[in-house]
Each structure stands twice: as C-alpha cells, then as structure tokens.
Amino acid sequence: MNLVTTQVTVMDLIVIAPALVLTGCALVILLLSAFVPTGRRGFLGYCAVAGVVAAMASLLWGNDGAQSGFNGMVQRDPFALFFTVIIGIITLLTILASLGYARREGIDFGEYYVLILFASVGMMLMAAGGNFLIIFLGLEVMSIAIYVLAGIMRDDARSVEAAFKYFLLGAFASAFFLYGIALIYASTGTFDLTGINRVFTEQSSIRILPIVITGLALLIVGFGFKIALVPFHMWTPDVYEGAPTTITAFMATGVKAAAFAAFVRVFWHALPQLQPYWVEIMWVLAVATMTVGNIIALVQTNIKRMLAYSSIAHAGYILVAFVAGNQLGAASILFYLLAYCFMNIGAFTVVILLGKKGEERTLISDYAGVGSRHPLLAAAMAIFMFSLAGVPPTAGFMAKLYVFSTAIQAGYYWLAVIGVLNSAVAAYYYLRVLIYVYFREQEGESPITQFAPAAVLVVVISAWGVLHLGVLPSAFFAMAQRSIQFLR
Amino acid sequence: MLLNYIPVLLLIGVAIFFACFAVAASALLGPRQANQTKGAPYECGMPTLGPTHQAVPIKYYIIAMLFLVFDLEVVFLYPWAVVFRELKVAGFVEMMIFIFILLVGFIYVWKKGALNWE
After folding, report:
1. Interface ipTM > 0.85
2. d(C-alpha A212, C-alpha A216), whole Å
3. CA distances from A3 to A185, A462, B87, B98 (A)
4. Are A328 and A406 in contact (CB under 8 A)?
5. Which residues of A392-415 are buried (b: 16+ CB within 10 A; e: fewer)?
6. Which of A20, A127, A346, A392 could in theory staple to A261 by disulfide, Cβ–Cβ 3.0 to 4.6 A?
7. Under an 8 A CB cutoff, do B91 and A30 touch?
C-alpha cells in the first residue's frame, strides 16, 4: 500500500478557497471579540460581511471546469459551485439581517458572527464533499455551530429549549447518518462516492444485500432529519420558534440547501443503482411531507411556527423533483432552492423588522394594520407570501412549475396532482397573513420609525431576487442545468 | 462450519442458566426483613442535611472541555512525531496550522476569563 501523498497542491487550495477564507475570517473575528472592549464590537458584523464577500471573490480563483482536490475528497464541480454561491448568498443575507437584530436582542457579540461563518464553512464542505467523510465532517461543523446559535439568547427559555431539543435530536440523527455510512462502507469498502458507484456498477449482486438496504435507510433518516422531512420533522416548529429569527431563517434555508446538496450528490452520484429501492420511500416521504406540513400550518397562530411548517412543506415539493429523478428534476431542485432562499429569508426579515425586543409580535394577528402603517414593507411581505404560495409572476411559481412538470415528464402523475392540491391548501395560510396585513386594522399601534438599514437592504435584495427569478427564470434554470451535468 | 459455533452456543446456554440460577437462588434462599432503616433512601452513610438541589460550579465542566481539546491535540501530535521525517516540510506546516488554530482558541478562552477560577 503506497502512502497517500501529503503534499498540498495549489489545486487543493483553490478547491477549498471559500471555506479557507471564511475560516480565517472567523478566527480573526474570534480574536477581535476577545481583545476589543465591550461596547466597541459593533464593527465585527461588518467584518463578517467582508469575509463572506471575500470568500465569494475567492471563487474567481480557478476556472469553471470540474476539479477536485485532496484525492477527490472535495469537489469543485459546477454543482458544488452553484451551492457554494447559494450558501454564500444565504450567509450574507443572514448576517446583514442580523446587524440590527442582534443589537436589539443583545446578542451582538463576535461569537454570533463567528458561529454563522463556521456553519457556512460546514455547509460548503457538505455541498462539495466527494467523500462520505467530508460530507459527515461538513454536517457536524454546520450542526454544532447551529446548535449553539439556536440557544444564543441565553436568557430566553424558549431559545435554550430550542437549542437543547435540536442538539439531542440532531445528535441522534448524526448517529443514524454515521451508521448508514458505516454500513455502506462495510459493503463496498470505500468512502469515496465515485468509488461506491463503481462497486455497485461492477458487482450487481451486492445491491440487494440487507446491509446495503439498511445503510440506505439509515442515510435517508439522517438526511431526512436535517431537511425536516415528515416523519423526522417533530423538532422543526419548536426549534424554529425558539431560535433567534435570523438563525431560523439561516436554518430554514442554509441547512436545507446544504443537506439537499449532499442528499442529491450521495443518492444520484453514489447510489443511483439502488434507485429502485429508494424511489418508493421518497415517494411516500414526499407526499407525507407536503401534506402534513401544509395541513398543520393551517392552524398556526405564530408566524414563525407557520413558516416552520411551510418550510417542511417546501421540502416536500423539492422531494417531488427528487423522486422524478431525471436531469430536469435535479435542475429544478437547484432552482427551487435558489428561489426558496430568497423568499424565505425575505419573509423572515420582514418578521425581524416588525418585531420588538424579546421576540414579541410574532403572532399573525400582530400583523393587523401593517399595510397602512408600513406600505412598502407590507408590499414586500405580499411578494414573499405570494411567492411562497406559488402565485405568478414570482420565483415560487416558476420553481413549482419546474418541479411539477418534472414529475409529469417522469410519469409520476399522482405525485404532481397531490403536489398541486397541496399548493392550493397552502395558499390559505399564506394569504391569511396578507388579510391581516391589509384588511384588519389595529388601534393604538404607532408605526416603527427606525428600521435597521441593513435588514431593509436584505428585504430589497430578496424581493428583487424573487421577482427576477419569477419573470426571467430561464437564465438561472439553464445555469442549474449546467450545474448537474456530472450526475449522468 | 456451523459446528464451530457450538462452543458459542454452549457459552450462551451457560450464561443464561447462570443468570437465571443466581436470581432464582437469591430469591428463594435470601432472608428478607423490611424495616425503616432498610426503606431509607441511603441505607448506609449520613442522612442528608439541607436541600440537595444546589447549584454546582460549572467551572469543572469548562476545564474538562478545554482539557479534552488540548488532550486530543497531543493525541494527534504523537503519530505526527513518529512519521515526522517522511512528511517533510508539508507535514510540519500543516501541523503548525492545526496548532495555530487551537492556539487562537486558547487565546480566546484565556482572554475571556474561562481559566479564572475565582
């Protein structure tokens, strides 16, 4: 056995450049937060913004072709680049939305931004991992940072409860995931995704071994937890409600995008030969996730809980494209995640802007009269709600259109029918928010005079993204299609 | 092939028998006397004084966690030292980066006062 080379090449550095930049920036902020006296730490958030921008700029280093570093451990193919950019956008928007919010809630210490950056590093590694070990490493780096972030409001019992619940259940899910990896390793003898694919192609007899099927099921549980698929969704509403709103937005978009990236890469790149075994499980999961998410969302009175159930339902829609399993399906997953990141962060940022210290005013009835007090903000909220409901000309409509047409092309008519029916149900609870915003008045509420400028910028960017993706989707869809060519 | 497992089967049988025998024997033969002392939460030792739900200093936890981190650092240093010559300069640089990252953590912890016992 020859020793694996330890020489780090320039290619290796290019492949992990964004993660390196983010890590370096996080370490600097960590030191600054220790040495800069309290009260003068306001600039740390801007350092984090600069770090994310620098990480995105580092993507320009190196060309567009598919490359890999560290002996195939980390990939830099168009798929990974697409997700790195999505994760970069999500991180940037989250930090911008946090600048004012963190000060209001008293959590604007450096560690808050450091943990967001570390979580972002984990997400990028997860999306770029060409090896089960890197995917697991990314998952853990991301999860541990998010566990802490969920409970960063230490004086708020709900926040601490959210962190504890997420940590306990997340640790279980990681164990399931790791056991799944171990069983797949036991049957194929490799952690490398391409290597696993080769083994399954060459030795068709091992595909039906119980150990392989068990490993597959455990992997589905592990991913299902992070993506919040029914029946692994029980933690979602409590954690989303208790966590700081910015972190809820980060979890609902970033964690989901990274987990879906690894999910698609593992199941379509490493385990496509096992498709007959997982496709029916996914069918059932997709239907259960859409239906349960939407129906429970109907009766929610807290907007954060409602958006939590809505995020479950959206994971179900994405899974519809996952089941369809063709080239178009993968592209529509990517497009959906891009659209979802804009509309969800936008909606949560409006919640942040209208909130008060101590996470108050998160009931849907608190939104009464917002239309007359803050017409522009109400219009932005309307755009996000219409997009989440899937009304043209917004990104949510185009994303759903791609997903359901994919399902029909692949012959999953019932799945598409159930999905469309679910979207109709979902329209009720999204539009209910708008009814409160525009058609109910609330006496004695004075308008909020001071909005955090950075959070307003996030709303503007998100609204622009939602409308742009809704009106001119083809360029982005073509980009998504180019990004998944490695799959076949 | 299957015959090779007979010792295992025998061992399982003996283990089950012994477990059942020990429980059954003590249930049949052991004397039982219920009295107040026996029903107390702590049969031996001092009765508790005052409330038992007290805040415990969490310092131990932090120190234990920090110890774990730097203990693991040493765990990684040993195999690195063994193959130090084969790894050449690249191995040295990589280990320095690793130690540097932990050093940043150490400075942070120190500066934040996590090592102050008072």
Report:
1. no
2. 6
3. 21, 49, 10, 21
4. yes
5. eebbbbbbbebbbbbbeebebeeb
6. A127
7. no
A10 inside 8 A of chain B by CB: no
Nearest CA to A114 out of A45, A183, A171, A170 is that of A45
Domain chopping of chain A, boundaries: 10-487
Q: Which of A206, A201, A229, A200 is nearest to A287 (CA)?
A: A229
A98-153 pLDDT, tens per residue?
998 988 888 888 899 999 999 999 999 999 999 999 999 999 999 999 999 999 99
| Contacts with B, A 21-80, CB within 8 Å | 27, 30-31, 33-35
In A, minimum Cα distance to B112 occurs at: A34
Average pLDDT over residues A433-448: 82
Q: Is it the case that residue A205 has pLDDT exceeding 90? A: no
Q: Amino acid identity of A359?
A: E
Domain parsing of chain B, residue ranges: 63-111
pLDDT at B61 over 90: no
CA A122/CA A370 separation, integer angstroms: 38
Q: How many CB atoms lie within 10 A of CB A147?
A: 21
**Chain A residues close to B94, C-beta within 8 Å:** 6, 8
C-alpha A13, offset from chain centre? 26
Identity of the residue numbered A61: W
Cβ–Cβ below 8 Å for B104 and A8:
no
Q: Which residues of A touch B102 (CB under 8 A)?
A: none
For residue A384, give both structure tokens.
Answer: 């996000």
pLDDT at A359 (0 to 100): 61
- At residue A62, what is the residue type? G
| CB count in 10 Å sphere of residue A462 | 28
Q: Do B108 and A7 touch (CB under 8 A)?
A: no
Contact A27 B101 (CB under 8 A): yes
Chain B residues lying within 8 Å of A31, measured CB to CB: 104, 107-108
Question: How many CB contacts within 8 angstroms connect chain A with chain B?
Answer: 23
Per CATH, domain B63-111 is 1.20.58.1610: yes
Determine the residue among B80, B108, B109, B110 to mutate to test chain A binding: the one whose Cβ has the most chain A Cβ atoms within 10 Å.
B108
Look at residue A3 in the predicted model and tell me its pLDDT: 47
Calculate what percentage of chain A has a pLDDT beyond 90: 71
The residue among A11, A8, A19, A13 whose CA lies nearest residue A125 is A19
Q: Which residues of A touch B90 (CB under 8 A)?
A: 6-8
Q: How much is the CA Rg of chain B, to the nearest whole Å?
A: 28
Check if A6 contacts B (Cβ < 8 Å): yes
Of the pLDDT bands very low, low, confident and very high (cuts 50, 70, 90), residue A190 is very high
Nearest CB to A7; choose among B90, B104, B107: B90
Percent of chain B with pLDDT over 90: 38
Whether A3 sits inside 8 A of B86 (CB atoms) is: yes
